[in-house]
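QUALITY CONTROL LOG
STEP: pairwise intake check
CHECKER ROLE: data steward
CRITERIA: each record must contain a sequence immediately followed by its structure tokens, with no blank fields

ENTRY 1 OF 2
RESULT FIELD BELOW
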Amino acid sequence: MDTPPPSDNEASEAARHLNALREALQKVLFGQDDLIDLVITGMLANGHLLLEGLPGLGKTELVKGLAMALGLHHRRVQFTPDLLPSDITGTPLLEHIDGRPSYRFQEGPVFTQLLLADEINRASPKTQSALLEALQERHVTVLGETHPLPTPFLVLATQNPIELEGTYPLPEAQLDRFMFKLEVLRTDAATLEKIVLRRDAGIPPEIEQVFSTQKLDELLALTRRIHLPIVVANFIARLVDSTHPGASKASSAHVRYGASPRAALSLASACRARALLNGRIHSSFEDVRALALPVLRHRIHLDYSARVEGLTTATLIAELLAEVTDHADATPASLSA
């Protein structure tokens, strides 16, 4: 039997707790309310997040603030060209017990609830791939022995734009394991003035824990109970299918390959999370439209001619959303808002 959706009261109470988390993160990062909402949405959907932006925009402080507000055990790995896979996952250590040699597994920093993979694209592809198993299966295998990771397990990775010196592109298989790719943009002059007046350089803001680990587990479970209407699921399926070459007019010319089924699952989970963040018990078409860009932008790969013509994944996704229209005549009015 399917789990019943939450009641309106449960959704409203959850939204109240989540708004407290939102307010806490707004003390860390000024003028980035939309970005903060997307980070909370990804967390509720139990997804890993990739944050891209120039150095100094607050990506690392946002992740650290999230860990403090949630009361999660967290670790940070600074990705550098000389970082090795074992520096992340851990390594077996040879010990002598009672004169007999034996191996003991020394856990790496990936064994935490929230891992900050800082500047992930400054490490080599070999080292980047050390996270593949952890991102998908949430466990690590070393020398044939599998070690489960703590729960919840979230990876928030930051990366610099690929145009900067000393960066490596992430493998496609790894990109697909991130639920969202979020762009951290610079703030306007008014927000900069606020930062100058309220923040001393090098001194992070003090963030108190917003709710307990038990409450976080309850919110994650509540997110999975949010209702996903069949018409919304159909919209998600048609949108993801349209990203492949030949499946739609917009994707026929410049797309090398489109989004995987994992993208559809990610979009569905994110829609549930966004609904709960806004105090609703069902997801809607508007949730799909709002989340299509962060879910799909890193999963659609364009050919070289697209760059020549100035086409980006953002413009393509906008065209796909316009082309893959929802069936308004079959949709209750409450689901379209």
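ENTRY 2 OF 2
RESULT FIELD BELOW
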Amino acid sequence: MKILNLYAGIGGNRKLWGDEHEITAVELDEDIAKIYQENFPNDQVIVTDAHQYLLEHYKDFDFIWTSPPCPSHSVTSYFLNAQGTVRFPDMKLYEEIIFLMAFCKGKFCVENVKSYYPPMIEPQSIGRHYLWCNFDISNYKGKLLKVGRFGHVKSSKTGRTDEKDKLKRNCVEEEIGLHILNSQNTSIKS
């Protein structure tokens, strides 16, 4: 199966996928892309804008996982806005959901955090994640990470939400990533 892993980060969602698939990972940050490549040497890693890459290459893949940046949708953003750091939600999230729903012939999953506002398009949900998929993922029975007061995942080493673990905290739990990959083998939702 040809898989596109957009906004790949260090590959938390991909960790348990194995090496039997042809995986293309797209990450904008060159340093983070290097970490991903070290973790998954068999994957093709492309350093570019994932949003644009999706638009140009969506027809080339059987399964697309996209995880657009979430800070402007998160509960933390709501608190920052209340303190005067005002910003609009990044609408690339909904652009990608609508685009994939309308044009993607394969399977897809768009992941983001649970938002501070009611979602404009109804997602499925697992733990701290909203997931827009064209297949059912509702039977997840795995473990979920501990989430702190403001939605930050706590470090397994310190029990705190320190910046040192930011990359790991931003990863989708590996068991959820595997569940979604395995779920895409089911029939497409109508």
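INTAKE CHECK: passed for both entries
DESCRIPTIVE NOTE, ENTRY 2: Strands lie at 2-6, 22-26, 44-46, 63-66, 107-113, 124-126, 129-133.
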